[in-house]
Amino acid sequence: MAENENRNRVDEMFNNKTVLVSGGTGYMGKVLIEKILRTCPSVKRIYTLVRKKKGKDPQDRLKEIFNSVIFDLVKNTVGEEVLKKVVVISGDVLEESLGLSREDRATLRNETNIIYHLAATIRFNDTLTNSVLLNVRGTRYMLDFAKECKDLIVFHHVSTAYTYPKEKVLHDKLYPPPADPHMFIKLVEWMDPGAVDSISQTLLNGYPNNYVFSKALAEGLVNDEMDKLPVIISRPSIVIPVWQEPVPGWTDNINGPTGLLVAAGKGVLRTMYCDSQGYADFIPVDIAVNALLVTTLDFILRGQRRVYNCTSSTVKVTWEEIIERGRKLVEKRLPFNGVVWYPGGSMKRSKLHHQISVILFHYIPAIILDSLIFLSGNKPVLWKIQQRITRGSDMLEYYANNRWEFKRDGLLAVRDSLTQREMELYKLNEQGMDLDEYLYNCTHAARLYMFNEGDETIPAAKRHMAIMLFVDRLCKFLLVIGSFYLLYQCFIGR
């Protein structure tokens, strides 16, 4: 019994197997590849589709990824030699036949055993055309390729828990897509992108954004292949920075909640239209990747489930608590450099109140400061930043003011079936998380890896924050004095 409890069946699953990862250069893709290399050294090979980007060829992009801090742990524990198991294949899910050469397609067709399809545009405000071409047609191209694979064991499609926002309770099951995915692919291929965007609100049919709509269509394509291919679907919720490993707090983007924390910490986010007592479902990327691995194992061993909701545990944290804890952190312990204003502001339950605050505390200060920047001979930046913040906040408002319940019966059943060793290696919940420590790690990692703000800059940042506090209180004091003066002039001074 003790021997069985020490088994790592995920490693056994990958033993001498070849894995293909689409989206391997993306956030989850990088963490997935690192985790497989570190905990499943018996894997034979990991192919990842990489396209040319900004003049860099796929090999150069892979070298950049391996130079990232998140691969330091696997280098130190397993050795750098294991990185040679990752092989770049020049390809693009946007292109027919995945943009593969005849030789590369033959190699992948003959060798691939497990496919993880993560490639997607996750931008809520991407055009509907781009969202459908990448998230829907790209999935169809991947499924078409999977049908050619000679020894395919599983095709793992990564979706999102918010795919069906009209379902307030989402179960581990398939749902009908909001429209015919094949028809939508033809539509965006045939119509001008501008024309598609002009009628996008009608086409979305109540969906909040292009991202979740396109992911729902993609699930429809996967559903069509359930009887023909060994396909499964994982639905992670909102993926946030690393909790524990390989690097606590690490992320490579400032989308979603991380962007809000950074914007508030820099003093450029002063208001948000949000139910302060509401909450969203967040899952650290390392937990999400663990879920991908063990659900793959579950399907291979049992083959009973096809859909897994990969969401957080029962611990729920309100938006208000996150914002307040984050504010205290960047005020006192770990301020950012280049803070524009002292962190403050509040959440608004009234849409009108929020919009007025945006004008007063976002737009007007941005215009004033950009004018001063322009007069000093530099390029104005704050107005563009505020426009980005407004777009991001508008997209997040839908999730901040609505609530869903995600059933995770499949993931709980998988967790109960794991050995002791597997539970240690592939943790599936946030039990034991210290929220303050987690937010500290997220902020620290953002400073280091997103903004190149080393620890040696913290004392200066604290001094700057103290100045911002003085200015903030001075402005509030002058505002109060000015208000009393106006009242005096109106009612007494006459």
UniProtKB/TrEMBL annotation:
Membrane-protein topology: Multi-pass membrane protein
Keywords noted in UniProt: Lipid biosynthesis, Lipid metabolism, Membrane, NADP, Oxidoreductase, Transmembrane, Transmembrane helix
Primary location: membrane
Top-rank taxon, per record: Eukaryota
GO molecular function: alcohol-forming long-chain fatty acyl-CoA reductase activity; alcohol-forming very long-chain fatty acyl-CoA reductase activity
Positions of the Fatty acyl-CoA reductase C-terminal domain: 361-453
Keyword ATP-binding among record annotations: no
BP terms from Gene Ontology: long-chain fatty-acyl-CoA metabolic process
Presence of the UniProt keyword Membrane in the record: yes
EC number: 1.2.1.84
Locations listed in the record: Membrane
Catalytic activity, reaction form: a long-chain fatty acyl-CoA + 2 NADPH + 2 H(+) = a long-chain primary fatty alcohol + 2 NADP(+) + CoA
GO cellular component, one term: membrane
Transmembrane segments: 356-375, 465-488
Start and end residues of each Thioester reductase (TE) domain: 22-291
Protein's job: Catalyzes the reduction of fatty acyl-CoA to fatty alcohols.
Family (UniProt): Belongs to the fatty acyl-CoA reductase family.
Protein name in UniProt: Fatty acyl-CoA reductase
Organism: Photinus pyralis
Lineage of the species this protein comes from: Eukaryota, Metazoa, Ecdysozoa, Arthropoda, Hexapoda
